[in-house]
């Protein structure tokens, strides 16, 4: 069976990803696994919107996406950030292949709530045969989270949710969220293992807030499929333990330890 690993690169950390990170992904492929990257780019979209003086608004962690915002989000995600990651892979000796979720109807979606959120989508299908062809060609697909509707309209999708959908439709073994913190923290301490129930407690008591909420929710959603474990980890070089393994929070179906 193909061992597929979906790696979500957060926009918060994309500029910090170094050669070691990309070499790690290429090494994963050399070891016989099939990595797929899904990336975000929230901070880069914000800075472009600011330059263009377009209003920025988030509702429950999702960007309100007017047609003007979509144009900028698509340009930044599928143009700038996507190619930055492809370049990182290529410099590390990998066959990075950048593709937007709209190309080949890779990510198909429906609007979440047109009236309040505008052109924001939730994925209801993934073109798995196209992704399998790309994997079988030896490429490392790099997906930007712009999806399309049956009518061919483009929608902006939260990248954590997009990564979780790709992992579920592709029946991935692992899903890793790479972000700008070492994992889920409580009082400054890294929580190494969390169950779905514990994740909900941490949201309810405010320990998990903001951009960490869609990540832990996407992690819990993914555990309903074949995936046994989802990891939230830091992408910076400093986010590694002394033995080189990446620090992180594993979210599992059932955790044994209490918080
Ligand atoms: N309990 C928590 N532990 C760690 N980070 C948290 C927690 N709650 C909220 N956060 C915030 O979530 C951020 C990561 O989410 P986000 O900025 O959306 O990253 P990304 O762009 O990688 O998706 C962290 O930088 C931190 O500010
Ligand atoms: C609908 C929605 O919110 N889309 C996100 C897509 C990018 C993203 O999710 O980037 P991060 O992973 O860096 O947060 C946005 O426009 O910011």
UniProtKB/TrEMBL annotation:
Recorded name of the encoding gene: argB
Limits of the Aspartate/glutamate/uridylate kinase domain: 4-233
Gene3D superfamilies named among the record's database cross-references: Acetylglutamate kinase-like
Reactions it catalyzes: N-acetyl-L-glutamate + ATP = N-acetyl-L-glutamyl 5-phosphate + ADP
Entry's family note: Belongs to the acetylglutamate kinase family. ArgB subfamily.
Superkingdom of this protein's organism: Bacteria
Main location: cytoplasm
Organism annotation: Thalassorhabdus alkalitolerans
Enzyme class: transferase
Pathway this chain belongs to: Amino-acid biosynthesis; L-arginine biosynthesis; N(2)-acetyl-L-ornithine from L-glutamate: step 2/4
Keywords: Amino-acid biosynthesis, Arginine biosynthesis, ATP-binding, Cytoplasm, Kinase, Nucleotide-binding, Transferase
Role summary: Catalyzes the ATP-dependent phosphorylation of N-acetyl-L-glutamate.
GO MF, any single term: acetylglutamate kinase activity
Descriptive protein name: Acetylglutamate kinase
Compartment(s): Cytoplasm
Annotated site (Transition state stabilizer): 8, 215
Residues the record lists as binding substrate: 41-42, 63, 156
EC number(s) from the headed UniProt entry: 2.7.2.8
The keyword Amino-acid biosynthesis belongs to this UniProt entry's keyword annotation: yes
């Amino acid at each position: 069976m193909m061992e597929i690993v979906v790696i979500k690169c957060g926009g918060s950390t994309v500029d910090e990803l170094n050669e070691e990170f990309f070499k790690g992904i290429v090494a994963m492929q050399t070891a016989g696994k099939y990595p797929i990257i899904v990336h975000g780019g929230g901070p880069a979209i914000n800075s472009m919107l600011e330059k263009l003086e377009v209003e920025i608004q988030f509702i429950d962690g999702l960007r309100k996406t007017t047609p003007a915002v979509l144009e900028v989000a698509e340009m930044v995600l599928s143009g700038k950030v996507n190619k930055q990651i492809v370049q990182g892979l290529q410099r590390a000796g990998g066959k990075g292949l950048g593709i937007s979720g709209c190309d080949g109807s890779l990510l198909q979606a429906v609007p979440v709530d047109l009236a309040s959120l505008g052109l924001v989508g939730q994925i209801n299908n993934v073109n798995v045969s196209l992704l399998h062809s790309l994997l079988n060609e030896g490429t490392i697909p790099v997906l930007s989270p712009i999806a399309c509707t049956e009518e061919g309209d483009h929608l902006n999708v939260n990248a954590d949710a997009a990564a979780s959908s790709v992992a579920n439709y592709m029946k991935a073994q692992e899903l890793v969220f790479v972000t700008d913190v070492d994992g889920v923290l409580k009082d400054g301490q890294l929580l190494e293992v969390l169950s779905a129930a514990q994740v909900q407690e941490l949201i309810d008591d405010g320990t998990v807030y903001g951009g960490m909420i869609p990540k832990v929710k996407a992690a819990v959603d993914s555990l309903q499929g074949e995936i046994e474990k989802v990891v939230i980890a830091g992408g910076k070089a400093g986010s590694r333990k002394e033995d080189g393994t990446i620090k992180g929070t594993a979210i599992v179906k059932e955790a044994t330890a209490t918080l």
